[in-house]
Amino acid sequence: QFPFGRRLPCDIYWHGVSFHDNDIFSGQVNKFPGMTEMVRKITLSRAVRTMQDLFPLEYNFYPRSWILPEEFPLFAAEVHMMKDSDPSWKPTFIVKPDGGCQGDGIYLIKDPSDIRLTGSIQSRPAVVQEYICKPLLVDKLKFDIRLYVLLKSLEPLEIYIAKDGLSRFCTEPYQEPTLKNLHQVFMHLTNYSLNIHSGNFIHSDNVNTGSKRTFSSILCRLSSRGVDVKKLWSDIISLVIKTIIALTPELKVYYQSDIPAGKPGPTCFQILGFDILLMKNLKPMLLEVNANPSMRIEHEQELSPGVFENVPSPVDEEVKVAVIRDTLRLVDPQKKKRKDYLLLIIHYCKDLINQCFIIKKNPKRQHIESCKNKVNVRYNYFMCYRCQTLEHVSEAKEELLDAGPAERPDRDAGRSPEAGLPSLCLKQVFPKYAKQFNYLRLVDRVAALFIRFLGVKGTTKLGPTGFRTFIRNCKLSNSNFSMASVDILYIDITRRWNSMGIDHKESGMCLQAFVEAFFCLAQKKYKSPPLHEQVASLIEFCEYHLAALDEKRLVCGRG
Ligand code: ADP
Q: A Pfam family name for this chain (predicted)?
């Protein structure tokens, strides 16, 4: 803490709430701009729905959701229709206020007519979602999983998942929802903040028992029951990667607005909390993503009535300390510098060798002089970076020596300053599995087109001129689709998205509206579904024309 201000910049800024906690111009910040907005219940549901439109099977890990109040008529109509076609279907729905947390304001309903539309819903929008009636139970109790995920970088995308997480238990034995038990929060909601008030709550003194346990302890039990734990992990990893792929397009729009390319600014990373529910058939379902997961490693205990004390929580400590330690190891600025210096050394070594070859091949006097000069410059650079790298290695050695004999692994001391630390609990899953998931990143490419035409840096919405330029440069207008129709499309979609009251600060077309317009154009141009193929074809068409335009401009520029 710097109560009197700090003049020198830091390597890492650890903000409590959001990217905007301070004005930062360098280093790394532990929050992405726009992440808090992106993981709100409504925004997340919208982002996942866009992906469900493109890839319905791949995104079936998120319960069917409707946004209130605007989609209430749609919700009522769809439920009515499904009940008509299958009279044995007796669904339950869960209503969650947007931006709520810790179970605040959540309730279960059996029918759309039970929604408390008066008053609060109008002023506080919400998501209504199909309730998962058959969760996996352990000791007859419903539980959910909190997994920690590090989004290390947005461009290129880098994702890490913690090998262990938390399992948070309900405190009343689970029964499938009936009109009688709908209101029993200790049976249906797994939130720690709610269940802690139940008389049945057990503070865990080890990782395998009580109302909060490690996820690995649950996996051990499942494995002893014969469950394929490897498959379960791979399903969870796939859920996490797909969810982040759904969030990245809009995050990139926020990013370029707050940290415009080419201007000095920090880079970002963020620890996210994924809440996942396992269904009875072991399919993981995404409940929500937290941009500010609690990192507390102690809990309050009531010593005597009204007297509370903070006591350590071994389960939280086991999981969370490792997550923070490894996040710092992965974003370590010193490590980055060491890597950069090593890359530079390699670069200059290669160049030195090249110059020597050139001298050998062209032993003319004049040529030798010029090459000798180049060799000298490269050699100086090389020595300079070599010194800096060695300096870092010796700094690291000193750190290890300072740590004292118990922590000094002599054999490893010269190798790396991390040699004495436990192995990483954060496991890289992207780009490691990029090949399997890259085909899903269509909206990312649509967002790249959107950002290109935003024009003025710092905005997040596209004006009518930007949209027209996009249509013209990508050669999308023709005799069947006049510029007048382009304007009508822009106005129709933009007006509808702006009337949803998401962000009134700026006027213009937001990314989601642009994506809708793009899907419309794709369906118009390529008649045969599926939608993802139509969209992919249109993206390729646009990228081709823009690349040709760039080439032309480059040639003209040179000319
Ligand atoms: P909050 O941010 O208020 O915690 P969540 O979306 O995490 O909101 O929901 C709170 C709890 O409700 C979850 O921890 C879970 O136990 C339960 N829950 C949420 N959505 C569903 C659902 N679709 N099906 C079954 N249970 C759910």
A: TTL
Ligand 1: which atom is nearest the Cα of residue 142?
A: 16
Backbone dihedral angles phi then psi of residue 444, each to the nearest 5 degrees: -60, -40
> CB under 6 Å to ligand 1: residues?
63, 94, 96, 100-104, 106, 129, 131-132, 144, 189-191, 275, 277, 287-288
Identity of the amino acid at 130:
E
Which residue among 41, 48, 61, 106 is best mutated to probe the pocket of ligand 1, counting the most ligand atoms within 8 A of its Cβ?
106
Q: Which atom of ligand 1 is nearest to 170's Cα? A: 16
From the alpha carbon of 193, which atom of ligand 1 is closest?
Answer: 4
Domain 441-557: assigned CATH number:
1.10.238.10
In the chain, which segments carry CATH 3.30.470.20?
12-63+132-345
Is the Cα dihedral 210, 214, 217, 221 positive or negative?
Answer: positive
| Ligand 1 atom closest to Cα of residue 275 | 7
What 3-state class would DSSP assign to 395? helix
Pick the CATH number of 12-63+132-345 from 3.40.50.2000, 3.30.470.20, 3.40.50.12780, 3.30.565.10: 3.30.470.20
DSSP-assigned letters across all residues of 87-105: TT----EEEEETT--TTTT
pLDDT in tens, the chain (559 residues): 677 777 788 889 998 888 887 778 889 999 999 999 999 999 999 999 999 999 999 999 999 999 999 899 999 999 999 999 999 999 999 999 998 888 888 999 999 999 876 555 556 799 999 999 999 999 999 999 999 999 999 999 999 999 999 999 999 999 999 999 999 999 999 999 899 989 898 988 777 889 999 999 999 999 999 999 999 999 999 999 999 999 999 999 999 998 887 778 899 999 999 999 999 999 999 999 999 999 999 988 878 888 889 999 999 999 999 999 999 999 987 776 666 666 666 666 666 677 666 667 666 666 666 666 666 666 665 565 555 555 555 544 444 444 444 434 444 445 566 777 888 999 999 999 999 999 999 999 999 999 999 976 678 999 999 999 999 999 999 888 889 999 999 999 999 998 876 666 678 999 999 999 999 999 999 999 899 999 999 999 999 999 999 999 888 876 6
Q: Where in the chain is the domain with CATH 1.10.238.10?
A: 441-557
How far is the CA of 163 from the CAs of 58, 106, 125, 233, 428, in angstroms?
Answer: 23, 30, 35, 9, 10
Helix (H) or strand (E) holding 148: strand 141-153
- 10: tokens are 């830091």
